[in-house]
Specification:
Pemi-like Protein 1, Chain: D, alpha+beta, two-stranded antiparallel sheet, 2 strands, 39% helix, 16% strand
Length: 85
């Protein structure tokens, strides 16, 4: 266990062994939560809103493919678009 000191501007230095084990890099984001009088830092990644929506669609099974060729993929998209009309 490591003990760290809070700096003047509320900065906290993450000890190197923990930093390295988590694979953190300068500029990475950490979510900060208060849990039963403990501060919990969790590494986070931001993704575009559209990508998040697409990922939810994929998880819910709302996708078509994969396709052996681009031509097959375009054909499937055209058929799906025609079915929506």
């Amino acid at each position: 266990m490591a003990t760290v000191k809070i700096g003047k501007s509320r900065q906290v230095v993450i000890p190197k062994p923990i930093h390295d084990k988590l694979g953190l890099k300068p500029g990475d984001l950490l979510e900060v939560k208060l849990r039963r009088n403990q501060v919990v830092f969790t590494p986070k990644q931001l993704i575009d809103r559209e990508l998040a929506i697409a990922l939810e669609d994929f998880k819910a099974g709302r996708y078509i493919g994969p396709f052996p060729t681009a031509k097959a993929g375009i054909g499937a998209l055209r058929r799906a678009a025609a079915a929506l009309k």
